[in-house]
């Protein structure tokens, strides 16, 4: 009896070895970058982590199809490397000598990708199923509505334009006041200039207030008294 049991186990092992090997039908390669993802907190890949991986794949298969009865023993892992890469297949729970089609396994993995990633504290970039494309994250909607952002930009441009006009008006007014002051100063200086005619200095005539000639003023007073 024992001999029959050992023979059966050896046959199953040989069959499983044929089912799970690089580039075998319905086989997937997995690559993990634990050190890259976790740095000093990286954990070692051992038999316990491998058991967890098998459990997560079995969970994904059962969750994908309510009819699935996949067990951990149906997930075969082989060709494990020190840099943490390996191949795996999922065998049919009813026959156990054939593998589940690649399309079904891929659909189950994609459906439960986040759960598998979280179990190993990894992401799509550090836990790679090489035949399965990364799941796309839902588009991130901005917290502020687009129309409000556009309105804010337009309002800022309007305020900036008003400020520019106000500052330009103030500067122009200051410039006009400065030019007017300089012009008045020049006029005052020109009135105070003493001109020289025939070698005799003469006062310039004050066009605004006028200037009274003393000689004629005296004559006027004399004739007036007569």
From TrEMBL:
<feature type="domain" description="Collectrin-like">
    <location>
        <begin position="24"/>
        <end position="226"/>
    </location>
</feature>
<feature type="transmembrane region" description="Helical">
    <location>
        <begin position="146"/>
        <end position="170"/>
    </location>
</feature>
<dbReference type="GO" id="GO:0005886">
    <property type="term" value="C:plasma membrane"/>
</dbReference>
<feature type="signal peptide">
    <location>
        <begin position="1"/>
        <end position="17"/>
    </location>
</feature>
<dbReference type="InterPro" id="IPR031588">
    <property type="entry name" value="Collectrin_dom"/>
</dbReference>
<keyword id="KW-1133">Transmembrane helix</keyword>
<dbReference type="GO" id="GO:0051957">
    <property type="term" value="P:positive regulation of amino acid transport"/>
</dbReference>
<keyword id="KW-0597">Phosphoprotein</keyword>
<keyword id="KW-0325">Glycoprotein</keyword>
<keyword id="KW-0812">Transmembrane</keyword>
<dbReference type="InterPro" id="IPR042944">
    <property type="entry name" value="Collectrin"/>
</dbReference>
<keyword id="KW-0472">Membrane</keyword>
<keyword id="KW-0732">Signal</keyword>
<protein>
    <submittedName>
        <fullName>Collectrin</fullName>
    </submittedName>
</protein>
<keyword id="KW-1003">Cell membrane</keyword>
<dbReference type="GO" id="GO:0070062">
    <property type="term" value="C:extracellular exosome"/>
</dbReference>
<dbReference type="Pfam" id="PF16959">
    <property type="entry name" value="Collectrin"/>
</dbReference>
């Amino acid at each position: 009896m024992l001999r029959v049991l050992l023979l059966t186990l050896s046959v199953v092992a040989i069959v499983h070895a044929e089912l799970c090997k690089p580039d075998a039908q319905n086989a997937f390669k997995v690559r993990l970058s634990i050190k890259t993802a976790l740095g000093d907190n990286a954990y070692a890949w051992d038999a316990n982590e491998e058991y967890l991986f098998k459990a997560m794949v079995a969970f994904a298969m059962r969750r994908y199809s309510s009819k699935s009865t996949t067990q951990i023993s149906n997930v075969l892992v082989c060709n494990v490397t020190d840099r943490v890469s390996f191949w795996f297949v999922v065998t049919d729970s009813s026959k156990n000598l054939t593998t589940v089609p690649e399309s079904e396994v891929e659909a189950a993995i994609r459906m439960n990708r986040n759960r598998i990633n979280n179990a190993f504290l990894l992401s799509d970039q550090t836990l790679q199923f090489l035949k399965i494309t990364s799941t796309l994250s839902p588009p991130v909607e901005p917290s502020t509505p687009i129309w409000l952002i556009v309105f804010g930009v337009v309002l800022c441009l309007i305020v900036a334009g008003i400020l520019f006009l106000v500052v330009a008006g103030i500067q122009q007014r200051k410039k006009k006041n400065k030019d007017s002051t300089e012009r008045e100063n020049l006029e005052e200086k020109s009135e105070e200039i003493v001109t020289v005619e025939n070698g005799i200095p003469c006062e310039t005539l004050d066009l605004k207030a006028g200037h009274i000639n003393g000689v004629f003023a005296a004559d006027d007073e004399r004739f007036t008294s007569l």
